[in-house]
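Sorry to interrupt, but I need a hand with the structure work. Could you add the entry underneath, on a fresh line?
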Amino acid sequence: MIPMVNLRQQYASNKQEIDAAILDALANTQFILGPNVQAFERESTDYLGIEHAVTCASGTDALHLALRAAGIGPGDEVITSPFTFIATAEAIRYVGATPVFVDIDPQTFNIDVDCVERAITPNTRAVMPVHLFGQPVDMTRLMPVCEAHHIEVIEDCAQSFGAHIEGKYTGTFGSFGCFSFYPSKNLNCYGDGGLVITHSEEHAANLRSLRNHGSQAQYQHDRIGYNSRLDELQAVILRINLQHIDDYNSRRRKVANLYNQQLAATDITLPFEDGIGHHVYHQYTLLSSQRDKIITALREAQIGCAIYYPIPLHKQPVFADDCKDVTLPVSERIVQECFSLPMNPELTAEQIDTICQTIKQA
């Protein structure tokens, strides 16, 4: 069996360090916003080159808290991609705002900047670009558009920790960058976890209050907040994995290159790198008109595979009423052909060969 993600092997490679750090945290008994959470926030700012990092309970919460801190609410519109996990749009709905879905680039699958510009209205308060599958959105084009219209940029970086454009990391372009540390992510913990980064001290203070029941001083609550604090034990895992993130991402790129070499002669459309940003391959996602046949063969061979994402958000039942007149042809075509292969730093050349031979035979 070849899994999509190999957490068992990742843990085994760092077991001694992780076990010792977990036992130390258990002995310390500071489990809520403890020293490992605080240290991880400092280490994240150092790595990403930004002033403030505020941890929270999940990537979904990161998006929600960022929208709240930006003051976005009912009557506001937030432009985003339909080709992403539903958490992106859920967070917009959480604050009472309206998600406005625009089409994607047919090669990168990221939000189409030209479509963003055409979708701006007087009610547009923010754009939420998703750095999908680990490839950065072209922020060099998007930021001037948003700045010209005085629109907030809240980056969904759930799949792009370590991705950058000429050394500037995703999440550091807009007002907020929002990360997920779900177990399958490039930088992962062993449960849920999230992070919001910002250049603004005021935004950071708001985020810290919002994640902790709206409190900035003990038993004093200035607003209605949330219980969204990163677990101390998850912070232990994240601190260790952060030390290895560049190696993990480099190995992901090597896996992608091996896939590319073996599948280049097929009629499958391989992942496209636009050359603007540094792709970190959270997923290795392809297109094929024979997708169903390929997936059947992979599953019969006990090889992991998945479809991210089979239904674009504007076609989801929960958004049906708001989007009944919305047609996004690129997104609607891509979801009919896309599929993803195993992608993790632990994949071996032999496993990749087995996967590719299975696809060729199919």
Notes: The chain has two domains: 7-239, 245-361. Residues 315 and 323 are 7 Å apart (CA to CA). The mean pLDDT is 97. The chain is about 40% helix and 15% strand.
